[in-house]
Amino acid sequence: MRAPTPHTPRHTMIDPPPNQPIADALILALTRGMSLAEWGRLGMIEREWELYTQLAPHYGRLVVLSYGDPAIEAQVAARMSPAPIVVTPADSADAHPRVLAALAGARSVLIKTNQMDGVFPAARTAKFLRANGLTVALVGRGGYLRSRFLADQYGPASKQAADAAAEEHDLCAASDAIVGTTPEMVHALSWRYGVAPERTRVVPNYVIVQGSTRCAAEREPTVLYAGQLVARKRVDMLIRACACISDDNQARLTLSIIGEGPEEPALKALVGELGVNARFEKRLPHTELLERMRRAAIYAQASMLEGHPKAVIEAMACGAAVIVTDSPGMRDVLTHGVTGLRVEAHVGALADAIDLLLTDEPWREQMGHAAAHVAQEQYGLRAIVPLELAAHRQAMSTAGTFERAQAAGVRFDPALVDAADEAAGEWERSLRAFARRLESSQAHRVLAEVEASIRDLRESVSGTRKVKA
């Protein structure tokens, strides 16, 4: 496999190196299964590494916990600037000693997760390094609330959603600081997993776009979408909307779909069925994708759920007229009628918005320039890096010493104590009836567990009565 060519940073450092670094090393723990080489294949490496280019002066060295092929990862890392030390696979038996070797001479370390998926190597590495005498802070960062996404996809009672929630809980319990991309996300993590608000930080997704954008007259009559081709993104709704616009606009419009995913065959079939002039392309390097956003008249996304949508804010930063559906994670990213259009999630509303913007060039011009100004100011690295550094400094200020919030007491009606005694008897009778239907060996084990549980419950009820007395 040929190693992808990483980028050379194009931006000057935002802040001069501080007199005192945050820590001797920063360890970035990649998402489960992800690698620097895969970042390159997906066209993400330039964008993702730009943040660490800005953070590097605040640390003595950068280390990446990866899941790629060691030889290929070494080739990719050698061409990056600043070049990280890569430890891969992150979950291998000898990963911890190799991390310790990579940190030779370091006394303080900050570990940061890239997402809340596959976070156990990060937490275990923190524990191992502390046991070896290093001061270690763990920043549990996620771009979106994964458990909610999986609950929507597979159902709230699904194993996938439960596993993701358990992973989020464990990361929240282990981390010195929890970072999310929106206030809604960190609020959800706080109340779900008992995270004290002072341990949370909001650091939005960022854009690396800077400077002026093309005027509307110079843009192509293209509606662009970039992202995964999965059901949640509702690209089919976008295709159907483009089939419903006016004949004049339909004659000159191209729908450009950039991305990969399981819905691709069905989406291509839908395009053929409806006769939409659409072009499908695989994922592009980030610089090429930004150029497409600079040329497109409209960027549209109809997702039913998002965290803090990178592609949308990048399209805004590039000056495209943006249309999004009124969906969680999407509705708050723009100001309707000023920096983009927010419409109801149905084909007719999307079609009307596309028709309006294609017909009204001055409005596209006004919204595109406003969107570029707001997105670059709010989500450019000059705004985001200080937020990131503040989260890191907060984590290092506790570095494994924070006190976990105690669970709040439960208030109840005293009559419930008496009801619990009666309920215990009903529960015992039900379980004994169930045990009688089992094989003999299973029944003995179940009955033993039932008796132990009933004994504990009765003791608990008795103790509560004494407290009342």
How does this model look, in words?
The protein has 469 residues and is of the alpha/beta class. The chain folds into 3 domains: 23-206 and 393-398, Glycogen Phosphorylase B (Rossmann fold, 3-Layer(aba) Sandwich), CATH 3.40.50.2000; 216-379, 3-Layer(aba) Sandwich (Rossmann fold); 415-468. The protein contains 18 helices and 13 strands. The chain has helices spanning 36-41, 45-55, 70-78, 95-102, 120-131, 146-154, 159-174, 183-193, 235-242, 247-252, 264-274, 286-295, 310-317, 347-359, 361-379, 381-398, 415-436, 440-468; strands at residues 23-29, 59-65, 85-87, 108-113, 135-141, 177-180, 200-202, 220-226, 254-258, 278-281, 296-301, 321-325, 341-343. The strands form 2 sheets. Strands 3-2-1-4-5-6-7 form a 7-stranded parallel β-sheet, sandwiched between helices. It is globular, with a radius of gyration of 27 Å. The protein starts with 22 loop residues before the first strand and ends with a helix. The model is unreliable at 1-13, 405-420 and 464-469 (pLDDT under 50).
Question: What's the arrangement of secondary structure elements?
Answer:
Blueprint: E1 23-29, H1 36-41, H2 45-55, E2 59-65, H3 70-78, E3 85-87, H4 95-102, E4 108-113, H5 120-131, E5 135-141, H6 146-154, H7 159-174, E6 177-180, H8 183-193, E7 200-202, E8 220-226, H9 235-242, H10 247-252, E9 254-258, H11 264-274, E10 278-281, H12 286-295, E11 296-301, H13 310-317, E12 321-325, E13 341-343, H14 347-359, H15 361-379, H16 381-398, H17 415-436, H18 440-468
Parallel strand pairs: 1-2, 1-4, 2-3, 4-5, 5-6, 6-7, 8-9, 8-11, 9-10, 11-12, 12-13
Helix pairs in contact: 6-7, 9-11, 9-14, 13-15, 15-16, 17-18
